[in-house]
Design goal:
CATH class: Mainly Alpha
Helix content: over 70%
Largest sheet: none
Shape: globular
Mean pLDDT: 84
Low-confidence stretches: 1-11
Distance between the termini: 25 Å
Strand content: under 5%
Number of domains: 1
Radius of gyration: 21 Å
Number of strands: 0
Number of helices: 21
Length: 434
């Protein structure tokens, strides 16, 4: 009887366990993107404190270069944690990942600046970002596997959509905290200690996440694979050999989200203030309104994907992103705040259907015995190449070409790549997890 109980599908398990699994899996993503958005919001402050230079643009480029470098370690983290997750289970790697993420985030908040320790400051900052990259590389694929394997089959899109919602929520909360700090503190206070405050949230968030993850059981799908002796000894090699098509499709599906998340939401405050001339407070406020709208859309589209399927939503969304982004950038105007918010929300409306659906589609095309590794590879390579470099490339394009609309090129190119993958993807809403 005990064996039968542990191998029941997620739809037969206790609903409370589903919710605990969802929260435990999502909290790591919350910490990850909370950290990234406050890094983006305070990029101009960090540039002055850790990369002092005569040219402010050079300092900002160095700041975003460190942002991009941290992504170089994400594929390594995905391989390491993916191997452990597909060999020994999802729980332990996810527990280790959240400890590393929380610790690195907190240490950034207490780190001395260039004025205090010289060149050691940017080196230390880069080291902590690399540690974050390794842990996040193992976090994302594992959390997606965990949610999809616990979710009821007929609501898998809705459940995995909450992971994307958590990312949006982290961007929203991080943006709200950053905006509040910027609005209430003087410039001197902000540069002295104010920017550090949100990074210090890593400790309590990490402890809560660790507690929740240690209290959970292993996912029923992985338990079934264990009991049937289907564990792969070399999941990466097997995945590259047997599931290369699924991995390539997965990489394509996440390409546009990689660019959109970082250009639309993380780079946006810096772009609006440093490039277009908005005040930092107005730039952050506009981005905040956009994030509220984006988060509100995600649960609806995630639920809709369980009804109409994953492919129609992703297809319409990517066509819309490719067509709308450039004209929307034309509408961004420091003289018209409401028009700017409308343009930002228009881009979010185009992007949200795909954003709410892609993770579920990727989970369903990967077999359980290789899901953690397959998702880690599919997620981390595009995020490294497109997401991690997006703020740097956007800053570089604007400074080199003088074209203020050039950041939209990154999004459009990624959307076209994702559209090709959507066309290659076969609908999985009825077939479910492999």
């Amino acid at each position: 009887m005990q064996t039968a109980t542990t191998t029941l599908p997620a739809s037969r398990r206790e609903p409370a366990q589903h919710k605990r699994a969802l929260i435990a899996a999502c909290i790591g993503n919350f910490i990850e993107y909370f950290d990234f958005v406050i890094y983006g919001y305070f990029a101009t402050v960090i540039a002055r404190l850790f990369f002092p230079a005569d040219d402010p643009a050079a300092s900002l480029l160095l700041t975003f270069a460190v942002f991009a470098i941290s992504y170089a370690s994400r594929p390594l983290g995905g391989i390491i944690f993916g191997h452990l997750g597909d060999r020994y289970g999802r729980k332990t790697p996810l527990a280790v990942a959240i400890i590393l993420i929380a610790a690195a985030t907190t240490l950034i908040g207490v780190m001395p600046t260039y004025a205090a320790i010289g060149i050691a400051a940017p080196i230390l900052l880069t080291t902590l970002r690399l540690i974050q990259g390794i842990s996040v590389g193992g976090e994302y694929g594992g959390a997606t596997s965990f949610i999809s394997e616990y979710a009821p089959p007929n609501r898998r899109g809705f459940y995995t959509g909450w992971q994307t919602f958590t990312i949006g929520l982290a961007l929203l909360v991080g943006g709200g905290v950053a905006s509040l700090i910027t609005a209430t503190l003087t410039t001197e206070q902000l540069h002295s200690w104010g920017w550090r405050l949100p990074f210090l949230a890593g400790v309590p968030l990490g402890l809560v996440g660790l507690y929740l993850r240690l209290k959970l059981e292993e996912t029923p799908h992985f338990t079934s694979v264990q009991q049937h002796a289907e564990i792969e000894k070399a999941p990466l090699l097997t995945g590259l050999k047997q599931e290369w098509k699924s991995i390539l499709i997965g990489m394509g599906l996440i390409s546009a989200p990689s660019a959109c998340i970082y250009i639309y939401y993380i780079y946006s405050p810096t772009y609006l203030s440093s490039v277009l001339g908005f005040s930092l407070a107005d730039a952050q406020r506009a981005n905040l309104y956009n994030l509220v709208f984006y988060c509100a859309l995600l649960p609806f589209f995630a639920l809709l994907s369980d009804i109409v399927g994953r492919k129609p939503l992703m297809l319409i969304s990517m066509i819309a992103v490719a067509l709308i982004t450039y004209p929307a950038y034309h509408l961004l105007d420091p003289k018209d705040f409401n028009q700017t918010v409308f343009a930002l929300c228009l881009m979010s409306l185009a992007f949200a259907p795909h954003s709410a659906t892609a993770l579920c589609a990727m989970s369903e095309i990967m077999p359980t015995k290789l899901r953690y590794t397959g998702l880690s590879v599919s997620l981390n390579i595009p995020v490294t190449l497109l997401g991690g470099t997006a703020p740097f490339l956007a800053t570089y394009f604007v400074s080199r070409t003088g074209n203020l609309l050039s950041p939209s090129w990154i999004v459009i190119g990624a959307a076209v790549l994702t559209l090709i993958s959507v066309l290659a993807y076969r609908e999985t809403v009825k077939t479910g997890l492999r």
